[in-house]
Amino acid sequence: MRVLRFKTVFLLLLIIALMQSLALGQTSATFDKKKLDTYLEKLAEENKMMGSLTIDSAGSAAYQKSVGFRDIESSTPANADTKYRIGSITKTYTATMIMQLVEEDKLSLSTSLADFYPQVPQSESITIEHLLRHQSGLYNFTNASDYPNWMTESRSKAELLQIFYEDDPQFEPGAQTSYSNTNYVLLQFVLEDITGESYSDQLQKRIIEPLNLRRTYYGGDIDPSSNEALSYRFSGEQWNPAPETDLSIPGGAGAIVSTNEEMITFIRALFKGELVSQHSLDKMTSTEQRFGIGLIKVPFHDKYAFGHNGGIDGFQSHLSYFPKQDVAIALTTNGLQYSLNDILIGALSIYYGRDFEIPSFDQKTISLTADQMKKYVGVYTTDQLPMEIEVFIDGKTLKAQATGQQSFPLTANSKTKFRFDPAGLVMEFDSLENGKYQHFTLNQAGGSYPFTRKGN
Fold first, then answer.
1. Secondary structure percentages of the chain, helix, strand, coil, to 5
2. Is the model's pLDDT at 7 over the cut of 70?
3. What pLDDT shows up at residue 16?
4. Which of 33, 62, 358, 378: CA 20 to 30 A from 204?
5. Domains in the chain, CATH or no CATH each
6. Do the Cβ atoms of 329 and 55 come closer than 8 Å?
7. What is the mean pLDDT of the chain?
């Protein structure tokens, strides 16, 4: 099971769709909190979500609700102070600290990676800014096929560097943008090399103490007795514990634990000039191929949002800030079998008084025999996305797997229509020839992508 996939193709589409589909109106003094309560309670009742949602307006909590359990075995419910692994939202914290080093003249955005790690492929051509903007060309080590075999085991800096040294680069630095956790683990190492202190200590000094954060830290083994959430995946008829990544591995790419309230405190401080200068913030929010520095900016109408998603083990999370509206939203989940994007759209639609119908979740499903499933098996390609999708049978389950991503089960609504709710994904097959479907259309996040069978 792979983790830290937040900006692979599917999840990048999700955050893009979130921002493009929101047309935020003027916030009224009040909104239908009861409707938002009902929506989250329905999600929990249908085993679609466990977690916490917080909306903050002008520095005051406009909404907060937690649903489900932080620890199912002890039947302990989550609450506003429950701490979650926030995955790749960690990258925004790392980028902030790197920009602080730049302001202190201890580093520059044009500094070469070869000054620190000359053994990394193409290091002489890779700058600190390339790492920050995912333009280094370095392979995303968490995409490796053997990664699930060791992700729960501690890894030293030397062991991780050896992996980075051996991985082949994907493109010339600066030539394109491709999300890679390798970039931000290396930034963690650079931060530690320059300061002579651990990432955890620097996080404490540069962000946690100045902002008086009490429930934010570099994580370790999950401790439910300290109100830390365990994470789960839904299979069969119940939530089951997810594997627990050893946080020595993601480090500056995904090792922080926090709460919604404290994440919002952080992103507000970032945009209010409490952590970096306006010049640095301008650099962070300037985008190239949709990525800023530790942030993503996506325009919708005349407004902009800045933020990041996170995903590790069974945790998925979101943090974003709308500067013109002075609104922040944080969503942390420790169990999800529904589209994070759809939950955010629903929550913000209710908050801004827009039409939104709470889903009934009464979707018809059918079962397929092994012979029926064989009709879909194959590798499919498209000209519109840089990946292939393989459809295959795993035991009694039909699954799909995109290039460089984890496999996912397909739920059949009919003999031609399948869905995967956690990603808001629908696949519709057509053109049955010689007992095999030749095409399917992937519908996700408002986009429609035609795939064609490869070979026979």
1. 30, 30, 40
2. no
3. 42
4. 62
5. 1-362 (3.40.710.10), 370-453 (2.40.128.50)
6. yes
7. 90
